[in-house]
Design a protein that fits this description.
By secondary structure, the chain is mainly α. It has helices at 4-12, 15-23, 29-47, 55-62.
Length: 95
Amino acid sequence: MVTDSLLKTYAESDALDLAGLVHSGQVSPGELVEAAITLVERLNPALNAVIHRLYDMARAQAETVDTSAPFAGVPFLLKELASSWTGAPNTNSSF
């Protein structure tokens, strides 16, 4: 379960801060993914910024993260214009 404290920390932190939390063991990559998902679900109805929700892909990746990597465990959004991602729809941002 995602706590209000984690959501506040996530919203107020940049990628370096979030990676630092993972490196120090204060949070897991999975916890950061769940925080990101929670915030997308809360904010996206007004923003309509996330079209394809790849939550299962993010959860699976979080389980295999090398926590020594520089941005280990930091969730990010994919822009699929002119790029392809295995497991993600390829629409070239056109519907």
